[in-house]
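Handover notes (outgoing to incoming on-call)

Open items:
1. Ropporin-1A: sequence verified, structure written out, both below. Nothing else pending on this one.
2. Nothing else urgent.
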Amino acid sequence: MPQTDKQICIPPELPELLKQFTKAAIRTQPADLIQWAADYFGAMCRGEIPSVRERAEPFPSSNWAELTPELLKILHARVGGRLIVHVEELAQMWKVLSLPTELFNSVMNVGRFTEEIEWLKFLALACSSLGVTISKTLQIACEVLSCDHDTGPARIPFSTFQFLYTYIAEVDGEISASHVSRMLNYIEQEVIGPDGLIKVIDFTQNPRVRLE
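Ropporin-1A structure tokens:
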């Protein structure tokens, strides 16, 4: 009889391999994911660098709209300040804006979201599909979340920035938790004013703030 209590050993490199593959798939947005995956891993087996786009590009079908910060801002407004959104409701909002279903599914997979979605986490990953770097991703997120477009530079509460940066860095997996902590401590102590808000220029034009 087959043994049922034999422990299954997971190769230590598997989680990182799958994470890099998923990130590459989100950036490339292949029309045929199965074929692209075969080419991706085939290139790795041959010791070659897989073909990966630096950022998501528009889908060839004219039925889809390209994801933009402006559309994310509309989506954020429709969420209406809620922290949790049900997957079916968010999927319908996404569909109404004619955004690519494949991108929605990719964000869902990377975030490991189920029925109840933490909106800020979903938004952060959606922004990451537009931003090549973490700094650019946070800039987009800040511009989407800011209510100050007509009165000044985009800015958000530092607590929101802290949450987004920590989460994006965790998903990225290439930035140490200690580095994230040092950057957040510096920004909070040396950059943030009494209003508790952080502006885009505070983390994009300050040479001492290195988010990557």
